[in-house]
Amino acid sequence: MLLDGILGALPYLLVALCLLNLSPLDVISGLFLGQFHVWWRHINAFGWQTPKFITLLCQLLFITTPEQHWLHHQKTNLRFGDIFTFFDQPAKIWLRWLRLLRLYKNLV
To answer: Average pLDDT, stretch 10-34?
Structure first.
């Protein structure tokens, strides 16, 4: 699991090294925000529940809560938004279209 995490972070670190000369503060800020994102979306694995007022705020801002993200890990055809929930509906429409296309190809 540790190797998977390191390999998952490697592309971000390589890009950060390439961009460090352009703006060190922006690169470091981006890495911190990215790490916060990882902590936020995977905290549900420890049984933590998002408070109701934060859940409501996230719904208003179209931000994925840890519970919604964890549902995506359990059932990959649900909750397509990794960070923002507004990707969910277009992704579901795209998935339906792909399924219809596959059915059509199987019939022909």
So the answer is: 85
Degrees to nearest 5, angle at CA 66 with 62 and 69:
75
Where along the chain do its domains lie?
1-47, 49-108
Answer with the residue of higher pLDDT: 20 or 2.
20
What predicted TM-score, i.e. pTM, was given to this entire model?
A: 0.54
85 neighbors 63 (Cβ within 8 angstroms): yes
Which of 82, 84, 78, 88 has its CA nearest to residue 63?
84
**CB crowding 45-79: b at 16 or more within 10 Å, else e:** eeeeebeeeebeebeeeebbbbbbbbebeeeeeeb
Number of H helices, E strands in the chain: 5, 0
